[in-house]
Structure formats: structure tokens, C-alpha cells
Amino acid sequence: MDVAEFRGDVVVLNVWGSWCPPCRKEAPELERAYRSLRPRGVQFLGIDTRDNDAAANAFVARYGITYPSLVDDGTLLLAFRGAVPAAAVPTTIVLDRAGRVAARVVGGTDATTVEGLVSDVLTGKSEPGASQRGAPGSEGSPPSEGTL
Prior knowledge:
The chain has one domain: Glutaredoxin (3-Layer(aba) Sandwich). The protein is 29% helix and 22% strand. It has 4 helices and 6 strands. Strands 3-2-1-4-5-6 form a 6-stranded mixed β-sheet. Helix 1 packs across helix 4 (111-122).
């Protein structure tokens, strides 16, 4: 997979692990958001962390994930340091068309939240780094600014 093909598109990145209960809960929600947003040209990419290929593939099959997902050996997340806290799995990031972090959810999310954040980016209502949400009862660090 060549992520360069996503240039110029709004992209939703989701960092997940098969071992993560909130990841299992949000997986069907993210698939629903993907199916809803795909006709609007929004790209999704999963980044599986701390799993082997077998566990990652089983998770994707079990939850019917149809968007691309990559198994990360740690190098992919290095590109997002500052935007993805090391211990914060799951984390969902919305990148604007310029590749900048426009929104971030630390912790589990749902389709309605992702669709709302993406709509804000598509309509220009979101400034880079402007939106951050955490899981209920959690506190996250502020969004990273700059281009990824």
C-alpha cells in the first residue's frame, strides 16, 4: 500500500490493537463511518500496534473491516509522535487535505463522532489541531500542530 495516494484527501487514521477492549467496541462503528464517508472521498487507514499478523488479520475478519489496515512494528507510529500518545490505544486522527492533524480522539469513539469531525474538516469548520476529544473520564494531550 502506498499512502502517498491519500495526498489531497481527508484521511481518518485509527490506531488499534486486537488486545484492546475499546478497540473491539469501536471497530464496527469505524466501519460504519467508513461506509458513510467513503462516497465523499474520505480515506480510512487502520494502524495495528503490538499484534502479530495472525491476530491482526483475525480482528479485521471478525469485525468486517473493509478499509486498509497495516500492522505496525513501531515505525509507523514514530511518524505520528506528538499526535498519538504512546500508550493511548485506541486513538483516531483526522488529517485535513494538507496532511495536518485537524482532529483527534484519544480513547474509543463512535461513527457519529467521526462523521461529525470529518464533516467539520470537509466544510472548513475545523482548523488544524482544533478538535480533540478523549474517552469519557480521560484527559488527553492537546492535538499536535503541523504537517505529518
